[in-house]
Amino acid sequence: MAARRVAIIGAGASGLCALKCCLDEGLEPTCFERSKDIGGLWRFEEHPEDGRASIYRSVIINTSKEMMCFSDFPIPEDFPNYMHNSKIMEYFRMYAQHFDLLRHIRFRTSVCRVSKRPDFASSGQWEVVTESEGKQEAAVFDAVLVCSGHHTNAHLPLSSFPGLEKFEGCYLHSRDYKNPQPFSGKRVVVVGIGNSGIDIAVELSHTAKQVFLSTRRGSWVLYRVADNGYPFDFSYLSRFLQLVQNLVPTSILNFFMEWKLNARFDHTLYGLKPKILDTHPTVNDDLPNRIISGRVRVKPNIQEFTETSAIFEDGTREDVDAIVFATGYSFSFPFLEGCVKVVENQIPLYKFMFPPELEKPTLAFIGLIQPWGAIMPISELQSRWATHVFKGLQGLPPPADMLAEITQTKRRMAER
Questions:
Q1: Cβ–Cβ < 8 Å for 161, 214
Q2: Model-level pTM?
Q3: How far is CA 76 from CA 79, 85, 88, 286, in A?
Q4: Inter-helix orientation angle 85-98/13-24, to 10°
Q5: Which of 17, 91, 165, 241 is the most buried (most CB within 10 A)?
């Protein structure tokens, strides 16, 4: 019997381990990558192609190498615990070479359409139309793994900021920020307090005249180095602590978390305190130092812009020369039109992977999740599960049960 053919869309971290898992299960994978190289989000480029998130030159990962590596390919011992993006790319290249993955990747090839075959109800097969060098090609696959992630389209909510159209300075999305030199001597407001927003604000504070960090809800700020100098995630993410979290009342857990995080610096005093678990935490070791030295000033949400200034919701007004919108990304899957529907940047998937109403479970999303820790081990486990489902070694619950689980998960996340 011929090996089942699997189309993999994207050759980033998730796409690479999806390739490896397919090969482990005796499947025949073909990975389509529209750029010229592997790495996805982690490949730094001054001028990235459209539809891909882009990092700045100085980015260092927020998870330790012990917690982010693939299970069957440890990161070299001489690599630092927290790696610069160039080291992450070096690791990905070593992984791809070791498992001979590159020969299964078709670079500079875009996926135009993924559609069910006429006999999908019985075969579960897909027709995948791709384009390379101006030529389109169609092929039939037994299953599809979507590994393009959720950092695709820069989210720039300009309509939420009255007066921006008359602002005389420059503004850009964090996707287009590469280094602090163009902002030397300027007064800059960074909008957004996610990882990118805080990183950029801290980096700019070394060269800009003044940096303002505007936030609507605040954020808990974690740090890479924990007790005794060990990596934070290595110290606090464990099966034992997960068991404790499941047994101890949420109010007690929240009290402990607040006490632990405020022991380093009082988030209320620094204008950063959110409701516990209300926002995804951010990671930065330097922000408190930049705030206490006055180089970064935390401000509330922006009410409106004038030609030369920003007016904040607390009534204060600051002259600014430039704006960096660290307002995140949105995602879409135009090549899957008719099969899945993205509403308000959400897509209903069973366990964040499987569309619940397909006649055959031959489509799965890998890495479309925002965990507290690293995405790489999660993508690997997702890929293992998906390939087992594709081979018929495991099944999925009835559609009604999957829909009920999706609704329950959504409700639980909303309560948090």
A1: no
A2: 0.92
A3: 6, 15, 11, 27
A4: 20
A5: 17
